[in-house]
Amino acid sequence: MITTTTAASHPFSLCGLVLLLAILLQSVFVAVTYIYFTNELKQLRETYAKSNIACLTGEDVGDLLRPSTFEDGYERNDPCWEIKSHLHILIRKIVLKNYKSDNAGNVKEKTPFAVSQKEEYPAGVIAAHVTGDSGKALPPENAFIKNYNGQKIQGWKSHRSPSFLSNVEVENGELIIRKSGFYYIYSQTYFRQRFVRGTEERKGKQLVQQIYKVTSYPEPLLLMKNAKTTCWSKEADYGLHSIYQGGVFKLNENDRIFVTVSDINVIDMDENSTFMGAFLVV
Fold it and tell me: Where does this protein hold Zn(2+) (predicted)?
């Protein structure tokens, strides 16, 4: 009876031993596989990092600043294409941002008379300031329409500092209003009269400046007038005088504003001395 029990337990021990051996072999296989793939991934990472650096060697800085396009020799199947493309975009953004920031304050100082910049103003700002343009010839007297007094100034400069336009237009020497409201309107004219020695032109001369409004009415309406009689110095080679006036007026959409003077031939069209402007008050 004892012999029979021992013989029956022997197969069970053999099966347990085989199962244990199978589990051990499986564990060894998993461990070896894990170590193998870990080493392979590490090598792939090192290779990829080296390829990234290799993609950047031999590059010219000027090439990196150019926009990346497929026509420039970078193909989608090129392993370096994605790296170079992203690098191009990043470098261009940084360089352009720094360039705009540096030149915002320097371009006006370096080239104040050669660069014309269009400034941006908030959408709600309605204003204009136009200045005399000494380089623009004034129209002859017989070209003016005589439905107002004086001679109309047309040689205004509007798109270079200190001039500007914001939601106001200028045409034929007239400011065009695009929104109804109460506006402060102003103008200054600078008179410069030269004398010929030995003549009697040094007598008092009447200087007149007038600001008109053009509406649907057939004739322009006079808004302001300033007149002075000035006696020029006998010792001066030329006489100088300026007239300024301003006031608040109700203007409607498409109304126009312009300035006339008594003698346009003695007007000095210096941008800091002769100007006209308007801005919306309410």
Answer: 231
Nearest to 140 by CA among 128, 130, 152, 129: 152
Q: Which helix (H) or strand (E) holds 48?
A: helix 2-56
Q: Report whether 177 contacts 216 (CB < 8 A).
A: no
Among candidates 251, 246, 235, 239, which has minimal Cα distance to 211?
246
In the annotated binding site for Zn(2+), the residues are 231
Burial code (b: 16+ CB inside 10 Å, e: under 16) for 241-252 equals eebebeeebebe
Instruction: Please tell me the distance from the alpha carbon of residue 122 to that of residue 129, in angstroms, as a whole number.
Output: 16
Answer yes or no: are the C-beta atoms of 213 and 137 closer than 8 Å. no
199 close to 193: Cβ distance less than 8 angstroms: no
Sign of CA dihedral 99, 105, 106, 110: positive
9-44 pLDDT tens trace: 566 677 878 888 888 888 888 888 889 888 888 887
Over residues 137-167, the pLDDT tens digits come to: 565 545 445 689 999 999 899 988 899 999 9
* DSSP annotation of 235: T
Domain definitions of the chain by residue range: 15-57, 62-110, 127-280
In one letter, which amino acid is 88? H
Binding residues: 231
Q: Is 74 helix (H, G, I), strand (E, B) or coil?
A: coil
CATH fold of the domain at 127-280: Jelly Rolls (2.60.120)
Phi, psi of 192 (to 5 degrees): -135, 110
Q: Mapping DSSP to helix (H, G, I), strand (E, B) and coil, where does residue 188 land?
A: strand
